[in-house]
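Reminder to self: tokens first, then the designed residues, so the page reads top to bottom the way the pipeline ran.
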């Protein structure tokens, strides 16, 4: 069974909108938690925190949506590169490099200059150097910014896509489905080990890579509507929902210092996946005026911690509990990203 035809489909601006809003949710989540922990809140912001962070964490929703959107386009873009370029892998790697690394290096520079978690922290030179490669997760090296944990997952997904392409199986939906189910199964095994032995296993790595492949199947099946390929997509979707609760129960019942709570992970990841599936299946534009926000999503995601830190250093900290809400701070912290990135989504 092969993927859908390579004919170019009309642009789905709903996905641009969703990508931008997901990045904003991640930025808001980090800001809301910082304000809550520091006590810079009033009645309204405390109520907002309870709604968006206690049971349903909009930041975790945003993270899984961003992974799904990445998977939705990456594998098909590699197949398209095979038809457009004589050296498709070279074209794919170069495109990914110039999309990811320049903005990442800028984020890293400001992350070293203005640490988000500990303003007085000075990172050793070797930590900065390893972080500059984006491979720190594979070398068990500290992330300069906590959100960089997502990059290891992205790179792993890219590597597996390249492997499938080299094997000539990137368009074989049965193989992609098997890989997706296997990744969810591996996440379940790691979560069991984590629960039984108390060892912090990287459950998120196979789980989120599986989400990326699930999204690629969703795209290939035209959101589960294509009669020839929908079964593969629905198998992947069904496996995700069936395994999400036991994975979260086993992996996140013990707090390892990151406020792990199994029900928050299960509710947030389940909601995020449902939102992705629903919005990507829509044919009519929804809030298409927010589509340009998608072009700034990567910059918002990477640069919001130093931007917020810069805002704090600009004298905004004192009145925040009296006159500012997270929405205002979010605007102030993310406007440089909007100015620096064009209103398009770079897949």
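Designed residues (347 positions):
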């Amino acid at each position: 069974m092969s993927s859908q035809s390579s004919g170019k489909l009309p642009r789905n601006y709903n996905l641009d909108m969703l990508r931008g809003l997901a990045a904003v949710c991640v930025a808001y989540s980090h800001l809301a938690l910082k304000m809550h922990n520091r006590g810079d809140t009033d009645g309204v912001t405390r109520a907002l925190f309870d709604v968006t962070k206690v049971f349903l964490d909009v930041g975790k929703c945003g993270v899984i949506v961003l992974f799904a959107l990445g998977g939705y386009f990456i594998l098909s873009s590699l197949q398209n590169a095979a038809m457009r370029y004589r050296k498709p892998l070279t074209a794919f790697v170069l495109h990914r490099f110039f999309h990811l690394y320049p903005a990442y290096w800028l984020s890293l520079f400001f992350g070293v200059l203005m640490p988000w978690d500990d303003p007085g922290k000075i990172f050793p030179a070797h930590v900065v150097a390893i972080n500059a490669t984006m491979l720190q997760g594979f070398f068990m090296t500290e992330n300069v910014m906590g959100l960089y944990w997502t990059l290891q997952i992205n790179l792993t997904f890219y590597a597996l896509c390249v492997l499938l392409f080299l094997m000539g199986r990137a368009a074989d939906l049965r193989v992609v489905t098997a890989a997706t189910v296997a990744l969810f199964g591996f996440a379940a095994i790691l979560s069991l080990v984590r629960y039984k032995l108390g060892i912090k296993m990287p459950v998120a790595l196979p789980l989120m890579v599986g989400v990326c492949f699930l999204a690629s199947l969703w795209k290939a099946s035209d959101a589960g509507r294509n009669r020839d390929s929908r079964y593969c997509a629905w198998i992947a979707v069904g496996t995700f929902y069936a395994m999400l609760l036991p994975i979260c129960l086993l992996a996140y019942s013990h707090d390892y210092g990151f406020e792990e709570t199994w029900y928050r992970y299960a509710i947030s990841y389940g909601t995020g996946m449902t939102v992705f599936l629903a919005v990507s299946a829509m044919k009519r534009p929804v809030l298409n005026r927010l589509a340009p926000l998608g072009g700034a999503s990567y910059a918002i995601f990477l640069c919001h911690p130093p931007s917020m830190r810069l805002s704090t250093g600009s004298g905004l900290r004192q009145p925040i509990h009296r006159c500012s809400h997270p929405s205002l701070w979010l605007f102030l912290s993310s406007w440089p990203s909007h100015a620096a990135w064009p209103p398009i989504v770079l897949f």
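The first helix runs from residue 13 to 38.
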